[in-house]
Amino acid sequence: MMLTKPLKVVDMHTGGEPVRIIVDGYPELPKGTILEKRAYAQAELDHLRKILMFEPRGHFDMYGALLVEPNLPGADLAVLFMHNEGYSTMCGHAVIALGRYAVDNGLVPKVEPVTTVNIECPCGMVVASVAVADGKSGSVSFESVPAFLFAQDIRVNVAGHGEIVVDVAYGGAFYALADCRQFGFEFSEGSAKTFTECATAVTEAVREAVPLDHPDHADLAFLYGTILTDGNDVWNEGPTRNVCIFADAQLDRSPTGSGVTARLAAMNAKRQIYEGQARIFESIVGSRFVGMVASTTRAGPHDAITARVSGHAYYSGKAEFIVEEDDPLGGGFLVV
Question: For a designed S-S bond to 273, which of 179, 192, 235, 246 qualifies (C-beta 3.0 to 4.6 A apart)?
Fold first, then answer.
């Protein structure tokens, strides 16, 4: 499939999870809300997502961020998130990368010691704070949209595993949360394949059993994935480990920013952590985010929190992608 112009990207990673920032070559999207832009990209421009996310330019677990024109007052930039299945509503690891990218590329005036970047996401405004010292950007934290525990201790029948107890929480996207020990193994014993198979089965079961709704918009009411944890939910000074399997069985190498937010919302609702207590969340590859309950609030009928999640993002390269007219695989493919 031909392109009218090359697609230029800057590649970063946050805690090992890729972020492919699309900086040129994408058609301008129509004016409207961020959710309207998301719907348009999905309906009219999805071939570009496949070109950028799929092989031979990407891979099954690639993740992308498309900068679009902001609609909300006060937004410095707006973003659509994309992955192997479609378009997410929130992505914390990408927000951390975009915060640093915005400072380094002059999208906001650079201020020391902290530069604030207001990022309009499909779930709402997310505020990133970028540490700046001697003109160089560093760690990034973000404060989430209101997050809440939607359903607690739901028992679902998971194919091949029997009854599993899960929470369902919203952190910019909805996740099922489950202790991996219910599947008969400790977190340190789990392989990527085992985590993916178990979490995907939970996602399918919860989608069947738990109808979702969101007080802001129906487009936010879908189960994005499942987070399997080490069960170490009650606050202490040590780290807790988790792995998020989202979209089409895509494995997050980072601790998952929106997933950490959802876990914090569930922990707070269950009185396992309180406002101002910091907790380390560790991923399957050992990378870490620090998360804490920043404030308590409401989201429609739900008691809610905002979370502050901190991490580091790093640059990994730049690329310019083309599609030759006679390339039969140029539109992208996946081997699964």
Answer: 235
Which residues partner with 175 through β-bridges?
169, 225
Same fold across 7-143+315-321 and 148-310:
yes
**DSSP secondary structure code for residue 108 in this structure:** S
pLDDT at res. 2: 64
Catalytic: 91? Answer: yes
Contacts of 319 (CB under 8 A, 6+ apart): 8, 9, 11, 57
| Superfamily grouping for domain 148-310 | Diaminopimelate Epimerase; Chain A, domain 1 (3.10.310.10)
Instruction: State how far the Cα of 171 lies from the Cα of 149, in Å rounded to an integer.
Output: 9
Among candidates 176, 86, 72, which has minimal Cα distance to 127?
72
Cβ burial 193-226 (10 Å sphere, 16+ → b, else e): ebbbbbbbbbbebbeebbebebeeeeebbebbbb
Active site residue: 91, 121, 180, 244, which one?
Answer: 91
CATH number for region 7-143+315-321: 3.10.310.10
Token duo for residue 212:
């979702």
Q: What is the per-residue pLDDT across 256-311, written as a single tens digit (0 to 9) for each?
A: 999 999 999 999 999 999 999 999 999 999 999 999 999 999 999 999 999 999 99
Strand residues in the chain grouped as ranges (E): 7-14, 17-24, 64-68, 77-82, 87-88, 114-121, 124-133, 136-143, 148-158, 162-170, 174-179, 223-229, 240-246, 250-251, 278-282, 288-299, 302-311, 313-321
User: What are the residue boundaries of the structural domains of the chain, listed by start?
Assistant: 7-143+315-321, 148-310
Beta bridge partners of 130: 115, 140
- Cis ω for the linkage preceding 109 (within 30 of 0): no
Q: How far apart are CA 95 and CA 308, in angstroms?
A: 12
What pTM, to 2 d.p., does this model score?
0.96
Interval 111-133: pLDDT, tens: 999 999 999 999 999 999 999 99
Judged by DSSP in three states, 219 sits in: helix
**How many CB atoms are closer than 10 A to CB 15?**
26
- For the chain, where are the alpha helices, taking DSSP H only? 34-44, 46-53, 92-104, 192-209, 257-269
